[in-house]
Design a protein that fits this description.
Low-confidence stretches of chain B: none
Shape of chain A: elongated
Number of helices of chain B: 16
Order of helices and strands of chain A: HHHHEEEEEEEEEEEEEEHH
Mean pLDDT of chain A: 87
Number of strands of chain B: 6
Order of helices and strands of chain B: HHHEEEEHEEHHHHHHHHHHHH
Low-confidence stretches of chain A: none
Number of helices of chain A: 6
Helix content of chain B: 40-55%
Structural class of chain B: mainly alpha
Distance between the termini of chain B: 65 Å
Oligomer: heterodimer
Number of strands of chain A: 14
Largest sheet of chain B: 2 strands, antiparallel
Strand order of the largest sheet of chain A: 7-6-5-9-12
Chain lengths: 297, 422
């Protein structure tokens, strides 16, 4: 029976590795959704994913093999021998504490630049009134957000700053579950929550930010245009925020600047609708065709 | 393990599976519409504190409703005499929205109402789904046929677009989220199903009202009434008149959208706009508009705050003892006051478009203490009470300016310790 248990334990690593290979090779997208963010941190996040995946896979295979081998080799042979108990080995304890610690510390240092790029190096614009010489501004200020994202049970509300680039003024555009961004530009989004913890996730942009009520935060991205007309991706909530968590799904549309401006003007005109014309009213509350599935992958 | 324990483990496992199966759905009863027990009690109470209709009579209400409207799994757009409800209810859409949640091989989704709506609005559309008690405001009870945010005059039913718009945009400031990502036909079917539940609820109320006309031992719309039974024929005619009234109101909704006079073009001039906002402020506080009475002099919604909406008023919210009977025995949610909106927050439930605000003012908000403002044509004499289109638009511009008033500047209000990074 003992040797059989060894084989039984082997099922777990074999199954896990098999599933992994299946998804990596069979799924058209591979393991990761398409990456369409031109910012350096987006590349780094994918790179770190693979590095960590290889390291942990190696450790997983080794430990799984060791486990199977030990059970197979030292299982009860039915010859009446009793187990020997040990209080362990000091040397080995030090080894298996230090090796992961060093590995984790190395990863922590290795990823510092990605973290800084994603969380602290907000895109800059020349400060008002400064001289821009040779593409280099004397002084810069953080780029003003394109829009404010408000997580709410259970929807995403967006408030575009509008032409004056200030959120909270009369030229703001309000949308629900519908975020449009121009491609090929550094975009800053200001993020807050109206009620509970949410997490704003743009999988294809490698952007994810937990949202804490009462705390204003920023994310930034630089979307690459894949389809010349418009790319559509999912917006998700990745923090279990209540019974309707699954409903917090929005649609991100990446489009060239001209198309974005046209969309903005059109949406703003609809928001300012002050005549009742049945034909206009019918188009006033447009849905997003969820069937025109996300461009991914 | 000996044979004894093995068999008891098997028995216990079987018992556990059986209990789970019966309690979690495998063998559960099909969904049923619930009787409007609170309204029934209210009708009985109006006749006397201890008065009760005969059980056979209240059963008749159920029977007639099921015969006409079907069940949650098999809803019908009824054809009652020559009243054809398929003019306002599409049978295919009802099928798509009703029943249990599933999707077919082409990924067409069914049971949409139960997937997206029922946990708040309830299977019956009574606004008493399992999550309802935790929400403020409570979810809407459709069964009165009254809807707040619409383009038609007070007392009229909402148009198809009005209901659809609520689904697409959600209602800011409430727990109603946006369903913008649903497919077009899914939205359409949900709109029809909401209308179905609403009509069914209204017919139920009419039938309960009809019980008042029944004598002792008399039945409601008996199936086996002889052709020469004059009382039964008379009763049927009366019921059909009431049902026709319900159908007509829904059928007329599409044609009864209130016209919106154009916003004066001169308001595009900033100086004119500023002057209009000032005039609007005067109207807000004046005798004709008198918005300040409820919305407060500063528009913070802190004026008259002790009123109730029509859904609550049915259940005697002012008589605590009686209201408690409704809450304890008839599953009515505890009464809450209808709060006038704080207009400075910038979240307008019925929508932020100028036309939305126009309709809110000109039509009032059905089911709430918000009245329709009196309007009069441009150039009417000053002694005629009412607001001219230009005055209406001035008031709208004032309301639209409130969220941007310097008094509530969000930048001044941001606490110093709010963390902004970097």
């Amino acid at each position: 029976m003992g040797k059989l248990w060894g084989l039984f334990f082997a099922i777990v690593p074999i199954f896990a590795i098999g599933m992994f290979l299946y998804y990596a090779l069979v799924l058209p997208s591979g393991l990761l959704p398409v990456n369409v963010n031109a910012r350096p941190e987006a590349y780094w996040i994918d790179h770190l994913f693979w590095v960590i995946l290889w390291v942990t896979s190696g450790v997983f295979v080794l430990t799984a093999l060791a486990q199977v081998l030990f059970v197979f080799r030292y299982g009860d042979r039915g010859d009446g021998r009793r187990a020997v108990y040990t209080h362990g080995s000091h040397r080995m304890e030090i080894a298996w504490t230090l090796v992961p610690a060093v590995a984790l510390f190395a990863l922590a240092i290795y990823q510092l630049d990605a973290w800084a790029s994603a969380k602290t190096r907000i895109p800059q614009v020349p400060a008002p009134g400064t001289v821009v010489a040779g593409g280099q501004a004397e002084a810069t200020v953080p780029k003003p957000p394109l829009a404010e994202v408000t997580g709410r049970q259970f929807e995403w509300r967006f408030r575009y700053a509008g032409p004056d680039l200030v959120i909270g003024t009369r030229d703001d555009l309000f949308t629900v579950n519908e975020l449009h961004v121009p491609s090929g530009e550094e975009i800053v989004l200001s993020i807050k929550s109206e009620d509970v913890l949410h997490s704003f996730f743009l999988p294809q942009m490698r952007v994810k930010q937990d949202i804490v009520p009462g705390m204003k935060q920023f994310v930034w991205l630089n979307a690459v245009q894949v389809d010349p007309v418009a790319d559509r991706y999912d917006i998700l909530c990745t923090e279990l925020c209540g019974w309707g968590h699954y409903k917090m799904r929005g649609r991100l549309t990446v489009e060239p600047r001209e198309r974005f401006d046209a969309w903005f003007a059109d949406a703003f005109a609809r928001q300012e609708l002050a005549v009742f014309d049945p034909a206009v009213a019918a188009t006033a509350a447009e849905t997003i065709d969820a069937d025109a599935a996300p461009t991914d992958p | 393990m000996n044979r004894m324990t093995r068999s008891s483990v098997a028995v216990a496992t079987f018992a556990l599976v059986a209990v789970l199966a019966t309690t979690t759905g495998c063998l559960s009863q099909p969904a049923e519409f619930e009787t409007n027990a609170a309204y029934l009690y209210r009708t009985e109470r109006a006749r006397g504190e201890d008065f009760r209709f005969e059980p056979s009579q209240t059963d008749d209400v159920e029977r007639v409703l099921t015969e006409w409207f079907g069940t949650p799994d098999d809803p019908r757009a009824p054809k009652i005499g020559d009243l054809d409800f398929s003019t306002v209810l599409d049978a295919d859409r009802l099928t798509m929205a009703s029943g249990a949640v599933y999707s077919d091989q082409e990924d067409t989704k069914f049971g949409l109402y139960r997937e997206h709506c029922a946990h708040c609005h309830g299977v019956t559309g009574d606004g008493k789904g399992p999550t309802a008690p935790f929400l403020n405001p409570y979810p809407r009870d459709y069964r009165m046929g009254v809807f707040k945010f619409k383009s038609t005059p007070r007392g009229s039913r909402p148009t198809h677009d009005d209901l659809r718009r609520i689904l697409v945009e959600g209602i800011p400031g409430t727990s109603m989220p946006s369903f913008r990502l649903l497919k077009e036909e899914e939205l359409e079917s949900l709109v029809d199903y909401v209308r179905y539940l609403s009509i069914r609820g209204e017919v139920e109320r009419a039938l309960i009202g009809e019980l008042n006309e029944l004598g002792e031992g008399q039945r409601l719309l008996p199936e086996d009434a002889p052709a020469d039974d004059e009382a039964a024929a008379e009763q049927k005619a009366r019921v059909l008149t009431n049902v026709k009234r319900i159908l007509d109101r829904w059928a007329q909704a599409e044609q009864s959208v209130s016209p919106v006079p154009p916003r004066p073009a001169k308001f595009d001039d900033p100086e004119e706009l500023a002057a209009a906002i000032e005039r609007g402020k005067a109207i807000f506080h004046g005798d004709v508009g008198n918005c300040a009475r409820c919305h407060g002099t500063t528009a913070l919604g802190d004026g008259q705050t002790t009123d109730f909406d029509d859904w609550t008023k049915e259940y005697d919210p002012l008589d605590a003892a009686v209201h408690q009977i409704y809450v304890d025995q008839y599953d009515v949610l505890p009464a809450r006051n209808a709060k006038p909106r704080n207009l400075r927050l910038g979240a307008l439930r019925g929508g932020r478009r100028p036309v939305d605000i126009y309709w809110r003012l000109a039509n009032g908000i059905d089911g709430t203490p918000m009245p329709a403002v009196l309007t009069k044509p441009e150039g009417s004499p000053a002694d005629v009470t009412g607001l001219t289109p230009e005055e209406m638009w001035s008031l709208i511009e004032y309301v639209r300016s409130l969220p941007y008033d310097e008094l509530n500047d969000p930048y001044q209000a941001v606490p110093a310790n709010v963390r902004e990074r970097p």
